[in-house]
Amino acid sequence: MPIMLPRCTALLICAALWMPVLSAETWTLERALETALKNNAELRASELSLRQAERAARNSWNEFLPDISAQTGISQSHTLAPNASNTDTWNASAGASLTFTAAIPGQMRRQQIAHEKAAAAHQNALLQLTTGVSKTFYQLIADRANIDILRANQELTRRQYDQVRRNYNNGLASELDMLNAQYEYQRAGPTLSDALVKYRADVAAFLLILGLDPGDAAQGNTAEDFVGEGSIEARKITLPAEADIIVRYLDTRFDVRSQSLAIRNAQADAGVALAPAAPSVRIAETFRLSPPAGAEHVAFDPLGYGGTFSITLNIPISPWIPGSSTNLAYRTAREALSQAQDILGETRKAAVQDIKKCMDEIQRIGENMDVAALNHRITGRAYTLSEQGYRNGLVSQTDLLAANQRMVTAEQNALNAKISYLKALYDLAQALQIDISELYSISGDNT
Q: Are 180 and 186 within 8 A, CB to CB?
């Protein structure tokens, strides 16, 4: 007698894994993006850096603030001579000075460049987050669709096994056919369970990206509480020519923009490094209050006052001496500028190759998607015909199981091709530093 599979137990296990998901809260892509933008720690850190850089750039005029100081004090002079008296006195002074150097414009430029770099980094962080959330969201939808495929396959293999077992008991099927059907059914259960466990782990990782605690059941932030709403619409697009795409978007990429800003920063550094060799002007005013002349104790009337105003032109000599610290610093800054320019050339080359790779990947996956969709239709029809032939005694049980497996594999391949194509579109949009909606708008197919 054949070994009977504990069918009820297997179904209860799968139901226990799947039913919490079916009763979970529905998430849309818009809600997921909104949650991520509000809670993601890396994005909040990027926003903080941008605010700090913006504040520093907005107040870069403070390089021209004068140096203001005030001093006051009381002193007592002592003498060891007989019958000599001690003298108490006081003093007060205030002064302001302003120094104009050739380094000030470069220092202000560096703060403006730092602001631009922070803005570019924040924009890139925002695009990376939205791209990552979108790709993962659709991958989770694909995973659930794959679970539905596996559940349907489990039910189908169960029916096949029941039918073959009845035929075997009635002497209408061989023991080999019955064992093969039993194996296919037994294999379907663990495959479904593995997919469910992986789905839970992937949802937990996704909730972390959203800035939520996957283990916070009180807030409904568990894997069982997540169900993505939507479908995988991998609409094929026709892209403009590579050359047109590259000319239009190359310089807006984050890596190219960052390196261009690095060159501007190196130019400002070179100016600051050379500034000590340029003349500087210092304007100063000092105001003093003093006690009455001849007063032996602290007194404030009548007061003596005076002030000093000065303009000083400083012409440095040592920075012009070859080998001086200023001279060496300037040469180092110029070398850093030259190196930054070389890196920009390499960065642009790598960026061009990245864009081409993403475009080629869309073309390749698009072709595979068409083939996978065709194969899915063919295998589905082939299984229908095989099932009809099996009922009429024209197709063996082994051939029917093989047709079923080919149909399931083809359906999974078609699903994987669609999600891969959609991910490739997001990858190209990120490579061009644009939103995916703009990528659709520049394509030749806007239907």
A: no
- In 3-state terms, what secondary structure has residue 161? helix
With bands split at pLDDT 50, 70 and 90, how would you rate the model's confidence at 326?
confident
Cβ burial, residue 344 (10 Å; 0-12/13-18/19+)? middle
Q: Show Cβ contacts of residue 437 under 8 Å, excluding neighbours closer than 6 positions.
A: none
What's the alpha-carbon Rg for the chain, to the nearest Å?
Answer: 38
93 CB-near residues (< 8 Å, 6+ apart): 70, 71, 72, 286, 287, 288, 289
**Residue 17 to residues 12, 145, 187, Cα–Cα distance (Å):** 9, 15, 17
Task: Single out the residue of 330, 347, 180, 322 nearest to residue 268, CA to CA.
Answer: 330
Q: How confident is the model at residue 100 (pLDDT cuts 50, 70, 90)?
A: confident
Pairing of strands 67-77, 87-100: antiparallel
- 122 in Cβ contact with 258 (< 8 Å): no
Q: Quick one: how far is CA 77 from the chain centroid? A: 69
Instruction: Give the Å distances, CA to CA, from 63 to 54, 97, 112, 118, 246.
Output: 16, 13, 13, 21, 41
DSSP per residue over 377-438, as a string? Answer: HHHHHHHHHHHHHHHTTSS-HHHHHHHHHHHHHHHHHHHHHHHHHHHHHHHHHHHTTS-HHH
Answer whether 0.85 is exceeded by the pTM: no
Report CA-CA distances (Å) from 301 to 77, 91, 94, 293: 20, 13, 19, 10
The single-letter DSSP state of residue 2 is P
Closest-CA residue to 24 (of 220, 230, 202): 220
User: Is the four-CA dihedral 37, 40, 42, 47 of positive or negative sign?
Assistant: positive
State the average pLDDT for the chain. Answer: 82
